[in-house]
Amino acid sequence: MNFFESLTAQYSSYEIYLIVLESVAVIFGLLSVYFSIKKNIWVYPTGIVSTVLFIYIMLVFGLLGDMLINVYYTVMSIYGWILWSRHSEDHIHVEVKKASVKDWKVGGMLFFASLIFVGLVYYYKPFIDNHFSMNGVRLGLYHLDWANYTDIITTSMFLVGMYFMAKRNIENWLFWIAADLVCVPMMQYKGLSLTALQYLVFTVMAVIGYFEWKKNLVKS
Is the pLDDT of residue 3 over 60? Predict the structure, then answer.
């Protein structure tokens, strides 16, 4: 079975509206990365459309870590939109820089705080899935598979990447590259082939973005 046959078989059991939502979210996500490469402030409004849709999609498919990261993306997109507006002379493009020691410290705290927070969310997932009732519920991480554990780690990496992007730090691309690449098999395993393909494209675009920002940094 080739990729397209596998894709058709996989999505044949999904409701049409979910397929449409995922397709729209993927398109706007790709647009957001494109604008990010160009250091164009439209990275944020297009990104917000994508992240809001993915909040719902990830909730439906039980990827709590990715759902939370998209909530964070939405909030950080507003924050980043404000920061980029302040540092843009033409209100469209910005100059980039390297992360400061303070940025790395904040990024490190975000990473470990995210590991703990998302881990706790998964710990209490049986309670959440049981409509917040403890009747017959056993808490713990026993119900997690490799994709869920991976989700916790990639969520933390994406947190740092989003923060660095808002701060216009070139290092944001390194976190996107690593986390996007890991998300390809994870999303495929969870049955989200379009999203897996999106993350594969994201990985390539993130590599391009890193070198594009590096050129801008050298010129500066």
Answer: no
